Structures are given as C-alpha cells and as structure tokens.
Amino acid sequence: MEAHDRSLFAALRSDVRAATRTALVTGAFVAITAAALVAYHLKGGAEEFIDSAEIAAMKSALAADPADDALKLRIQERDLAIREAYFARIERLDRGIYLLLGGLIAFVAALAWAASAASARRAAPVPGSTEPTAAAEARATLSSRWSIAALAVIAAGLGAAWTSRGDLAFLDQAVTAIEEAKAPPVFAPPDEVRKHWPRFRGPDGLGVSAYLNVPSSWNGASGEGILWKTEVPISADNSPVVWGNRVFLSGATRTRREVYCFDTATGALRWTGKVERIPGSRNGPEDIMEDTGYAAPTVATCGRRVYAIFANADLAAFDFDGARVWARNLGVPENHYGYASSLIVYRHLLIVSYDQATPEDNRSKFLALDTRNGKTVWEAIRPVSASWDTPIVITHEGADQLITCSNPLVIAYAPETGTELWRAECLNGDVAPSPVYAGGLVLTVNTGAQLSAIKPDGSGDVTETHIAWFAEDGLPDIVSPAATDDFVYLLTTDGLLTCYETKTGTKAYEQDIALMFNASPSIAGDKLYLISTKGVAIVLQIGPAYKELGRAELGEGVNASPAFQDGRIYIRGKKHLYCMGTR
Fold it and tell me: Cβ neighbours of residue 542 under 8 Å, at least 6 residues apart?
C-alpha cells in the first residue's frame, strides 16, 4: 500500500509541475503578444493614412490642370492603395487581438489546472500516512479530469488564435465591407486602357493595335530586330498581356499553376505568383487535351491587378508586386476540350465565360466578379453548350454591350447587370473563334455555321431581322477574325485566308498561304499580321487584294496571339517570350 501511495503522490507532483510550466509559458505568450500589439498600435495612427501629403500635392497639380485624365487616374489609384494599406493595418490589429484572446484563454485554463493539481496533491496521502487511499485516488481522478479539460481549452484557444487567414472568413468579410464602404471602385478610363494591351487580343479584344510604329521584320536566328528573349518557366499557349512596364503570362501543369510578370525593358522575370491552397481546388483535370493544356486562357489586367484562371477552375488575383489579393475555385466545367475562354475586365468587373455541357443542361453561365474581392456581382445562366471563345464589350449608340458566342446563340448582355439585350441564332458546333466589331456590325463565325454580320441595335430575338449579311466560305475552327470598317479577314488553321467587304459581305479574295495557324490575325494601321505555328510572321497590306509586304521568322513555334505596344510586339513562343523592336 505504501508503494502505491508513493506512486500516486509522485504523479500528482508531476501534474503540478506541468500545470505550472504551462501557466508560465502561456502567461509569457500573453505578455509578449500584448506588448507587440501596443507597439504596433503606437507605431502610427490612422491620420498618416488619411492625411496623405502625396495625395494633397497631386490634387493641387490637378487643380492647375483639370483636364489631366492620367493624373486623375494616378490620384484614384494612390488613394485606393493608401486605403488598402490602412485596412490591412486594421486587419492585422484584429488578428493580433484574436491571438491575444486565445492566449488569455489558454493562460486561465493553465492556472485552473495548476490550482486543481495543487489541491489534489495536498489531499493525497503522504507515503506512510494512514489516510484511506480510495479518497486520494478519487481526488487524483478529479485532477486528471481537470487536466484533460484544461488541455482541451488550451487547444481550442490556441487553435482559434493561430487560425489561418482563409479560416477567418468573418474577419475578411468585415474588412471587405469597410473597404467597399470607404473605397469606391477604381478603374482606368477607356482612353487609358487603349494605351495598353490588357487582355486577349488587346484593349477591345479585336486584335487591333493603337500604335502604328510597330516592327514588321525580325530574325530569330541572328537576333536582328529582337530586343530580348526570355525563357518562360512553364510552357502554355496563352497570349501576352502588357500594362506599362510589365508583361504578364501564366503557365500550368496538372499540379502547378503560376502567373508571371516580366519587365518590358529587359525581359527579366520580376515575380512568379503561385496559385495554390484555394478552398475547393483540386489538381487536373486528368483528361485535358494536349493542344489545350492547363493554362489556355489569357490573363487580364485592370492596370492595378492581374487576373488568371486555369483548367481546374482556380481563379486568382495578384497585385502588380506579386502579392495574391484573392482567389477562389469555380468548379471544373464540363468541357470536352478543356477550359480555354480568356478573362476580360469591364470597369471594376472581371467577366468570366463559363459555358459548358449542352444547351439542355442549363449549366453554361457568365459571371461578373468584383475585381476588389472576387465576389460575384451578377450571374447569367445561358441556354448554350460548351465554348472556347472570349467575349468582347462594344459601345453602340452610347451604350455598352457584352457580346458572347456559343452554340447556337450570339447573345448580348448589359455588362453592368447581366441583363440580356438581344440574341441571334446563327452558330453551330464547337465555337472557338471570338467575335469582333467593325463598321457598326458584330461579326461572328465558326466552321459548320456561317460568318454573320449582326446589327447590334435590336432587342429580343433578332435572328430574322438584324443579320445584315452572312457568308459561308473560309470559316475558321480556332482562329478569330480580324476586321476594319472596310474588310473582314478569316484565317483557317490550315492557312486559307479569306477577305470579305465589311459592309456588304462580298468576297474580295481568297488565298492559300500553305502554313498552319493557331494565332489570331492582328491589325496595325494598314498592315495585317499573321503568325504561323512554325513562328513565321507574314505581313500583308490591308486591301481588296492579297499583297504580301514581308515575312519574318522567329525560329520557334507559336500558338499564341501577339501583343502590340508603342514601337514593340511581344510574342510568346513555345518556350520563350520575345520582344520585337528597336532600342
């Protein structure tokens, strides 16, 4: 019996020591956390964010020149950046408070444990005493139960304190609500957007350069006319997007998804944005087609952030310094070739084309997300099948229209609300070519259907009333058309170029180029640029007859469409990103 008492007494003494140590550790944690919070709070107040001398100086400059739109945009952007920094500061303070609260819970629990263990030890029989051991064992059992309860409270407290950012959804929502209330959406005006190349096929999605001084000759073997060449970490067929001094691309494998930012001056890789740890995300899909790949969609930018979507439906936003702003998974679409529609930005909305399955399934939809936080602003369910084209936004008679294509419908929506404006039934098959807009007409095309010129001033079903003309020769299955107010150019994958008059649909000419093409044609001034899958660029004179001005060879295969900027062309090859131009 005495041996049993000694064992019980030693166990209770060990409990006291463990509880005391836990109380000391959690107490130190609380003290350190509290001191850090006080120091962070005293480091700076809200006034340093709100009363910005930089903003005040820019506003003074704007008062002297009220017509300076670029300065207005810089003021908006800087003001939003300051506000975001302020709310990020509030968010960090809030997290620190929850961390402190978790520590306090753990500290109190440890004190309770220590007190209970000490009480049980005092009541236990000292070895050699005559106190009944049954009573002592009961007290020891009670102490043990207190220990387990205390440990559970500690675990819960520390778990709450160390919760990841994604699990603090209620805190993110509160911060977002404050941000939205105090910081209205900021977006670049159309004239500013057209100076850059912010999406697939440029600012309006038409493949038309705002600059005329772009190069028309280069040589990949000698390096002539090539400013720089940079290897891209993961090969993909999405096209370059350019804003200011940054070029954006994306790349992916089945298990890895990344966004890249390159410097326009040197081609150096500025940063790589990892798209990972997104709730609901999974790798794959397993049955993706090699020609499509895991990163077929081209990224889009609003001038402050860049947005990317991948085959597994991961969608992420990064700021221009490479920090991830938000991310979500949309659920992998039922798409037998793999997801390929590119993103576009309209004002403060990120437009996502998510057509899938068949028209009868009612699973196709368009989403408009708030660029600030990724939340859905509107959603339009569509009676169409899976598609691979990218929508455009046009302005007709002062009103904007979001033009979308899929089998069997061309549908126009109000981009602010997702309200349907009109529809025309004129498509068939697997729609991949994107629409264009020229001469006041919406031009849509797909092999197995027709080239349709639609007047965008109708409402409801305009199939019988607003198709100005249609044509059936030279219809492409992948490549999007290019058009001016005078001519429309269609290019098939196997190299048949067909030119129609925009106003009448009369065929001007047809030319077999005898090369393969996946990149869409582009227009710069009076020149038409075609880039083959072998990397051979053909420059043509725009007009009613086929007139070749020259050819330039890259020396590397190309499936992506080029991006045009002041004096430069950016081309993504199978392995490298190229910048054409002169110094």
Answer: 484, 486, 487, 523, 526, 527, 528
